[in-house]
Amino acid sequence: MVAWGFWDWGSAAFNAVILTFVFSVYLTDAVGDERPEASSALGFAVGIAGLVIALLAPVIGQQADSAGRRKLSTLVWTGLTVLATVGLFFVRDDYSYLWLGLGLLAAGSVFVELAQVSYNAMLSQVSSAQNMGRVSGFGWSMGYFGGIVLLLLVYVGLIAGEGGALGASTEDGFNIRLVALVAAAWFLVSAIPMWVAVPEIPPDPQRPQRLGVAGAYRKLFADLRSIYRHNPHTVYFLLASALFRDGLAAVFTFGAVLAVSVYGIGAADVLIFGIAANVVSAAGALTGGRLEDRVGPKPVIVGSLVGMLVVGVVLLFATGPTMFWIFGLALTLFVGPAQSSSRTFVNRLAEPGREGELFGLYATTGRAVSFLAPSLFGLFTGLFASERAGMIGILLVLAAGLVALWPVQPPRHAAAKA
């Protein structure tokens, strides 16, 4: 379990440091010279990466299942993520390097998400029906903690002031480029325990291992029809989770913006709040995992969504930094359990040996509606000329996910797993 969880710890190097907080900002603000077209290009690059993930994820998961190569698949895509991250070191602070940086960032986004498909499917290999919630919660909390530790290390060592405590040169963005090398090494080293300690699944002798791309998609569509006929609630959950996961992602995407513009949090304090939020989310994931093993994943997800909606409504009317610290952290308390239990719900829904395929569909459905919460945030912000009103859009997406989830019941084989 610990060896498996260290992959989550390491993946934060790309998700938190490269994609969210450090390198994407470097690309748009420094390399892109704060030009509007640089931010627009970043949006297109991430959007194209999302489309590629949506198309490839189900097939990658299916092939890893049938060939008995989930661990190998995870590590191959992890290795490609590391290589893409290393490549970012060569992106100098010059506009001519923007497209190289965007291409590597988009490629890394694809690679890390495809690695996540097989990694999530391995949950059934490192847990039992009795402790799956705790194991998933542990892994998810490791991701939060890994992001916190690495962000603090690179900020203090290489970013704060002029080149951080190590006094790295800032010429041509050298200190930020060094962050990319640190992140790559962090992810690579963190993946080693999984490679050494986690067992691989055997190949399925009843399923063809070499279908080709066209054959894999034909089989995928046939399997989808079969899933819907025999276990329609699996499809219902994929659709419901796509909605509420988009809302969960929007909480972190727009949280920093709202903290500064609506509640008066100082720009310098946003990072501190972000660290606190990740600690609280990790604690929530650990607690939710233990609770899930007693009551099942659906009550944990429902309770988390209800909690987020209640706190979100309070935040609509709250004012001032103190209220945001109290209720903002309360909101993040429910994010970790919802994310972790959603992962275990998919694992319990999947037929034995086909977890990777279902996690591929999980990734695809999530990408299919990833525009919804950001679009509604922008719509309500524009309609009321208020960023506070944009929160209504996020709450509506979370509420829609809760409504869609309410009637979902696990199929018979999932009940047997539990």
From TrEMBL:
Membrane-related topology note: Multi-pass membrane protein
Superkingdom of source: Bacteria
TM spans (from-to): 12-28, 40-60, 72-91, 97-117, 138-158, 178-198, 235-264, 270-288, 300-318, 358-383, 389-408
Major facilitator superfamily (MFS) profile domain ranges (all copies): 1-412
Localization terms from the record: Cell membrane
Primary location: membrane
Keywords attached to this entry: Membrane, Transmembrane, Transmembrane helix, Transport
UniProt cross-references to Gene3D superfamilies, sorted A to Z: MFS general substrate transporter like domains (1.20.1250.20)
Name of one Pfam family that matches: ATG22
SUPFAM superfamilies with a match to the protein in the record: MFS general substrate transporter
InterPro entries: Atg22-like (IPR024671), ATG22/LtaA_families (IPR050495), MFS_dom (IPR020846), MFS_trans_sf (IPR036259)
PANTHER family for the chain: AUTOPHAGY-RELATED PROTEIN 22
Protein name: MFS transporter
Organism annotation: Pseudonocardia humida
